From TrEMBL:
The keyword Metal-binding applies. The keyword Metal-binding applies. InterPro entries: Cytochrome-c3_hydrogenase_C, NADH_UbQ_OxRdtase-like_20kDa, NiFe-Hase_small_C_sf, NiFe_Hase_small_N_sf, NiFe_hydrogenase_ssu. Residues 30-197 form the NADH:ubiquinone oxidoreductase-like 20kDa subunit domain. Its cofactor is [4Fe-4S] cluster. Residues 222-299 form the Cytochrome-c3 hydrogenase C-terminal domain. This is Hydrogenase expression protein HypE. Heterodimer of a large and a small subunit.
Length: 354
């Protein structure tokens, strides 16, 4: 089924009334991103699909965990229709990393449904090859789909990669959009829903395309480091470092990579604004990053650059901490003129009294 575009109004680009979201989680993954998105609240995925978010097109979501179908051919029908060019416009969401099926020997690495004629499994790669060129927009959800993630570690046998490595970093959808990467292991639920909602407003003709950085991440989400939003950053500045995981102090010496990792989770929290790895005692292991996990291992060891930066911060931080301690003691005392004696000692000058 092809949905007609609506007319242009107020000089805005043409929009569409309906959008299908074809979400395939048969990449190499744990389905954690699908599970994570069920916790979104800004907006909630159920609000988007039930039309409670004003101004969005009607959304038809096809995701195996969130599907009302019983599975099988009923579930596969919209995917097959889209592959035949009979369903548009659609946003293709890929979850999980893409294996290299050129090196699968006599088998296959991952599949989604079977070929109707031969009964042979259809690989994820088969679907991507047919759906991506017809997609209005393409979104990679989670670090596996964006950059390869855990499955693409050194020594893996599958040749796993991210979607842009597979389709090409210069890929463009039928709407002229690049792949939109929303990394995270798993993805922070509101990061994904906010990005998807922006895309849907763009589809409706009500917003420009979402701004992305050179790694195709939403700029407004991944433009700052974990450290810049961390509750513990004040301890770092004062060179007050945790020695174990029971401490509320800065965790850089016990494995936190926050100063060099692009992620907004300490600011945003995980669910309903609560949590956010270092805020609640978890070191940042760089799970949103293209170099994850290899470049951050072994986890819980001090990052190589941290010994230099924490050493440099030490003399300044120790001095500043002492000075602040003195000032803190001063500002914790009330001024001495607040008393109930017979004389006014506030320093009030009565010169202008009549
Ligand atoms: S815990 Fe990590 S992110 Fe937070 S201040 Fe320390 S180094 Fe930075
Ligand atoms: S703070 Fe670090 S470990 Fe936590 S979600 Fe962000 S990148 Fe991943």
């Amino acid at each position: 089924m092809t949905v007609e575009t609506t007319g242009s109004t107020n000089g805005r680009p043409q929009g569409v009334d309906e959008v299908h979201i074809l979400w395939i989680s048969e990449g190499l993954s744990c389905d954690g991103d699908t599970v994570s998105v069920t916790a979104a609240s800004q907006p909630a995925i159920e609000d988007v699909v039930t039309g409670l978010v004003p101004g969005l097109p009607t959304v038809h979501l096809y995701n195996k965990v969130l599907s009302p179908t019983l599975g099988g051919e009923e579930y596969l029908a919209p995917f097959r229709a889209a592959a035949r060019g009979e369903l548009a416009p659609f946003v293709l969401v890929i979850e999980g990393s893409i294996p290299n099926e050129n090196i699968n020997g006599d088998g296959y690495w991952t599949s989604f449904g079977n070929d109707e004629r031969t009964g042979e499994p259809l690989t994820l790669n088969w679907w991507i090859d047919r759906l991506a060129p017809r997609a209005w927009g393409v979104v990679a959800i989670g670090t596996c789909a964006t950059y390869g993630g855990i499955h693409a570690m050194a020594g893996n046998p599958t040749g796993a990669m991210g979607l842009a490595d597979y389709l090409g970093w210069d890929f463009r959808s039928t709407a002229g959009l690049p792949i939109v990467n929303v990394p995270g292991c798993p993805v922070q639920p509101d990061n994904f829903m906010e990005t998807l909602t922006w895309l849907l407003y763009h589809a409706a003709g009500a917003a420009p395309p979402p701004p992305l950085d050179e790694l195709l991440r939403p700029q407004w989400i991944f433009g700052r480091t974990v450290h810049e939003g961390c509750d513990r950053a004040g301890y770092y500045e004062q060179a007050d470092f945790a020695k174990d995981y029971n401490s509320p102090k800065c965790q850089v010496k016990i494995g936190c990579w926050g100063p060099v990792v692009n992620c907004n989770v300490p600011k945003r929290g995980w669910m309903g604004g609560i949590g956010g790895c270092p805020n609640v005692g978890g070191i940042c292991i760089g799970c949103t990053m293209p170099g994850f996990p290899d470049k951050f291992m072994p986890f819980m060891d001090m990052p190589p650059g941290a010994s230099v930066s924490s050493l440099a911060a030490k003399p300044y931080g120790a001095f500043i901490r002492r000075m602040r301690g003195i000032t803190n003691g001063t500002v914790n005392k009330e001024p001495k003129w607040r008393h109930n004696k017979e004389a006014l000692t506030s320093g009030y000058d009565p010169r202008y009294r009549p």
